[in-house]
Every structure is written in C-alpha cells, then in structure tokens.
Amino acid sequence: MRTDLHRHPENPPTAVRNLGILAHVDAGKTTLTERILYVTGTTHKRGEVDDGTTVTDFDPQERDRGITIFAAAVSCAWDGHRINLIDTPGHVDFSDEVARSLRVLDGAVAVFDAVAGVEPQSESVWRQADRYGVPRVAFVNKLDRAGADLDSAVESIRRRLHPAPLVVQLPIGTESGFTGVVDLPRMRSLVWTDGRDTAEEGPVPEELRAEADRRRRLLEDAVAELHPAALEEFCAEGSVSAPTLVAALRDLTRTGDGVVVLCGSAYRNRGIEPLLDAVVAYLPSPLDVPAVRGTQGGVEQERAADPRAPFAALVFKVNATGTGRLTYLRVYSGTIGKGETVWESGARRVERIGRILRVQADRHAPLERAVAGDIVAVVGLKSARAGSTLSAPGAPLVLEPPAVAEPVITVA
Ligand code: GDP
Predict the structure, then answer these.
(1) Which of 316, 317, 319, 383 has its CA at a distance of 20 to 30 angstroms from the CA of residue 86?
(2) 127 contacts 175 by C-beta, under 8 angstroms
(3) What pLDDT, in 10s, does the model give residues 292-336?
(4) CA-to-CA distance for 78 and 276, rounded, in angstroms?
C-alpha cells in the first residue's frame, strides 16, 4: 500500500512515530531505510547501496565520494501515520550526539543479520537503547542469504539480549527461496514476487499450516506468561483473537518485557510492509511516552505533548547545506508557526523561525507550523546548536544543561 504524503500534511500526535533504526555497520540499515522510503512512496526509485544510488545519500558530491550522509531526519507516511526516521549515528559510544539521537526518538527498529545473529556491536547498540528506555521491535534482515536462520538468530537474541523474543512471523521458504511470511497474529500469508512492489495477501499455505498453528500457540503462551492480565482474557475467550494478541504485544513492547521479532530481506524488498505495520501497531506515539522534563528559572518543569501547551523543542542537529542552515528539532510541547519568535537556551536570546520544513528524502516540504510530537527542520536560526532548547519567549525552558557547543556540520 502506498500512501500519498501530501494527503497527510499534518498528523495528530497519536498518528506520529518518531523512529530510529539501530544497527551495527553492515546489518543493512541503509538498505532498510532506502526500502522504507520506497515502499512508503517517499521516493519513486529503488536505490542500491552497492551502486551508490541510495536517495539517503542526499548530496551528489558526497555520493560521488561514496560517503553515506543521512539527513538528520526523513519523514514518510504509512497507513495514516507519519513516520519520522531519525538518523542514529553508526558508531557506538556514549557521546552527546548518540545520547541526543536516542533521546528524540520514541521507538526503534533493531536490525540483525540473519546469518550472524547478535554480534558484539549489536549488543552495544541494544544496551544503549536500554539505557535510554527506547522501546524496540527487532528485524532479522538478510533472510535471503545462504546460511540465514531465523530460529538461531532469535535464540541469540534470547541468550544475549535477555528480553523475551516474541516471534510474530514464520518465514515462507529459505535462503534464496525466501518469498514471504506467515503473519502469526492474523494467520495470513504475505508473499512477495519479484517485479511487484507490494505483498500479496493470502491464506496460510497448506504445508505450513501445522507449523504456523504450533508457532502461534508458542507466541500465545509466551505472551500469556509475561502478561497475566492478557492471560485472563485468553482463558475467558478460549482462543486469542488477533486484536487481543496485538494489544498484549503492544503493552509488552512498551514496558520492554518482550521484543516483537519480524524478519525479511531489505535487499530484496521483502518484509518491509509488515515491519511498518508493526512500527505503527507496537511502538509508542509521542503521547504514549513520559512528558519531557526541563527547568524554567532553575525550577523543574514537565511538558506534555500537548499542542496548546507553551512551545518547547530540542535541537538535535544543525546542518549547513546548499539550501541554508538547517536546524533539526523535536517539538515536545506546543505549536510553532513560521515567522514566530523563540527563546534559544544557548545564546539566551530570542530568535525568529524562518521557514519550517519537513524533510522527505531528497526534497523539503514547507509547513505553516509544527506541533508537539513532530520532528521538523527550520531555516533562519543563527545561534541554535545541537542541544539547544527552543521555547516560547514567555516561558523559557532548558531541556538539557548547557554542553560544549558542537560544530556545525557542513555538508555541501
Ligand atoms: P549498513 O552498514 O547497516 O547501513 O548496511 P548496508 O545497508 O550498507 O548493507 C550492507 C551490505 O549488506 C550491502 O552490501 C547490502 O547490499 C547488503 N544487504 C543489505 N540488506 C541485505 C539483505 O536483505 N540481503 C542480502 N543478501 N544482503 C543485504
């Protein structure tokens, strides 16, 4: 299903997912990002990482030099929701930059290689996300590779990362014959054929029926064990309906007691639509996460994701590009319109917001305003740095204590 971006210029906070893709180098983050942009209709051409045409490469000069430069955030639309894909640095350290990128997202997809399973680097990325309390779903990628094995990848998640893996798909076919998945909560199959953009939905193939039944029971048992409230409902109903199971999986994802596991092949464009459905179904919206805390005149304050509350936003990246200085921000509360003024916590002065932009892969869509929960880029700010708070001049707020100013990254 492709969704026209322009039909959803603005979304209520409940329909926003601020998403990061967490992966160690080579697990397929670039390919997956590329396919998400393609499947959501944000780009119309499938780029290939290996031939240097991925749209997330963004800048022709950088592309020529073979360096992947992500926009700090790219926006796409899926099933009536806006998904803001926030770039998370590939390197694993405890720098302010990594902390900030984890801070501005509300949920993440952790990508694993179906041959290698959990590797030391994926473990570090996972621990960092734990530290910032980021709810996750897991995507076991590269199922088309020789030696790919979902079960052993899941086993390594269980052994090394400790949340209970809740496997919601059964692959159809193996290695180069991997063609689709059985969606266990709904007991339907999704099959991808080369040359077609979207999955074909159908009944569970006869030869997989017994195995799919067995795996759904395993999933139900795992959920029931972790979520006694849901268990009561199971007993009362006899069999577990898809909505009940999905609601229980959503709770477990948000508490971090379990991790929903999906699989696919980003490279072959298989498994992307159910992954996006899972992002919408299981990961939280800006309204589902705790209110942000900051200080106003030294006094601690909480700001909920309410469009009518005083404006507060955190700057998480500043890029100097050919189109000007782009300041990326996460709006935590309130609403801001173009041309309005904000108080900037670094220079401690009032600045004017010029244009407000939604970054969509290789183009920028102008917006009249940005509201609580959203991620946008603005043009016109001079002193804001990564880590600055922007807030209503009448209610100046500081979300992060002043840090060493980071340099502005010059892309073009
Ligand atoms: P990143 O470093 O995590 O951004 O990984 P890339 O997206 O650049 O992928 C690393 C390598 O793995 C590239 O050569 C990709 O073509 C390849 N790759 C990515 N996804 C898949 C997949 O699903 N199957 C296979 N066989 N290769 C993949």
Answers:
(1) 383
(2) no
(3) 999 998 899 999 999 999 999 999 999 877 667 889 999 999 999
(4) 7
Q: What is the per-residue pLDDT across 199-230, written as a single tens digit (0 to 9) for each?
A: 999 999 999 999 999 999 999 999 999 988 87
**57 Cα to the center of ligand 1, angstroms:** 15
What are the φ and ψ backbone dihedral angles of 172, each rounded to 5 degrees? -105, 115
**Nearest protein CA to atom 2 of ligand 1, as residue:** 26
d(CA 396, CA 409): 27
Ligand 1 near 141 CB (within 6 A)? yes
Distance from residue 267's CA to the centre of ligand 1 (Å): 6
Q: Which protein residue's CA is at the shortest distance from atom 19 of ligand 1? A: 28
Query: Which CA distances in Å does 176 have to 46, 117, 172, 223, 259?
Result: 20, 18, 11, 32, 27
| DSSP codes of every residue in 181-244 | EEETTTTEEEE--TT-SSPEEEPPPGGGHHHHHHHHHHHHHHHHHH-HHHHHHHHHHSS--HHH
* CA neighbor of 109 nearest in space, from 222, 189, 32: 32
Report helix, strand or coil for 74: strand
What single DSSP character describes residue 49?
A: G
In 103-204, where do the E strands start and end?
107-113, 136-141, 164-167, 169-172, 180-183, 188-191, 200-202
Q: Is the ipTM of this complex over 0.95?
A: yes
- The answer to whether 386 and 95 are in contact (CB under 8 A) is no
